[in-house]
Amino acid sequence: MTETQTTAEAVTTTRPTLLEARDLHVEFSSRGRRARAVDGVNLAIGEGEIVALVGESGCGKTTLARTLLGLERPTSGEVRYDGNPLTYTSKALKTYRRQVQLVLQDPTGSLNPRHTVYEAVAEGPRIHGLPDEQDLVSKALSHAGLRPPDRFFLRYPHELSGGQRQRVVIAGALALNPKVLIADEPVASLDASVRGEILALLLRLRDELGLSALVVTHDLGLAWNIADRVAVMYLGRIVESGPVEQVLTAPRHPYTQALMSVLPESPERVVLTGEPPDPTRIPGGCRFHARCQVLASGKAAEAGVHTRCRTEPLPILPATPEAQAACYYAETTTP
């Protein structure tokens, strides 16, 4: 498969695919050059599945999430929901966003301080003209763990704890009865004592409501605790993916290994040199090669792949449920 070849074939997952990116590219103009923020991504989220999208800041995670939400239009490739390509008319997007909802990382910034909890949660149903507004708000607050719901109707964000505010944000998404949540760093702004509660809530929503979720995070520990599958992103592309236990207990890509090494239980710390490259100047060969500890140590040379690492572009990974890594060295060590 060449670097630009897409997986146009149906994606095989253990669950029916609900939301999918196919050979997705998103570019922006930057100082007269084109920044390849998303540079060929295939990703599938199955029904009732939680997928964690992991990587450093600036790797393209948020741009990919915004594109899956229909907030950015792809330069090429497509987003598909329930088997159908996403179209970008106002009517189609409005219908789509009832099914795919965003949960932001900062509940304080997400909530209007002048709106009560009831008004915040009722905003979506009002925009979409849904009947039985109070019933929808009550059910959404209950599902989000704010019970009894009417006790919270007239409260304002400043009267709530950080965890309660995040639950209100989640309730605002649930009020539209979506099928997919896209959660961008959903617990990053919360105290450690509250993080587990919100993660447990997301798991309960998956179990009780059959919700699917894409959880965008830089935290592999979070991914371990919540996800069924994990996709590791570097410089606009997924470089490793698969079942969370398999990827995080035996990471094959050197970048994933480096990310894992910062966890407390890791036996060896890997310190990456330099910063992620400029997305307007993606290096040739493996896009990670300039920072790769395996290449720097001479192991890639011993395996006879060091020249390929520096010069030969890797294929775009397909959206399959099996563990996979875009790495020439990993290919030599696969049993």
Automatic annotation (TrEMBL):
GO term, biological process aspect, one: peptide transport
Family: Belongs to the ABC transporter superfamily.
Alphabetical list of NCBIfam families matching this protein: oligo_HPY
A GO term, aspect molecular function: ATP binding
Lineage: Bacteria, Bacillati, Actinomycetota, Actinomycetes, Streptosporangiales
Pfam families associated with the record: ABC_tran, oligo_HPY
Assigned keywords, A-Z: ATP-binding, Nucleotide-binding, Transport
Ranges where the ABC transporter domain occurs: 19-260
Record InterPro entries: AAA+_ATPase, ABC_transp_ATP-bind, ABC_transporter-like_ATP-bd, ABC_transporter-like_CS, Oligopep_ABC_C, P-loop_NTPase
Natural source organism: [Actinomadura] parvosata subsp. kistnae
CDD domains in the record: ABC_NikE_OppD_transporters (cd03257)
PANTHER family per UniProt: D,D-DIPEPTIDE TRANSPORT ATP-BINDING PROTEIN DDPF-RELATED (PTHR43776:SF7), TRANSPORT ATP-BINDING PROTEIN (PTHR43776)
Gene3D superfamilies: P-loop containing nucleotide triphosphate hydrolases (3.40.50.300)
Protein name: Peptide ABC transporter ATP-binding protein
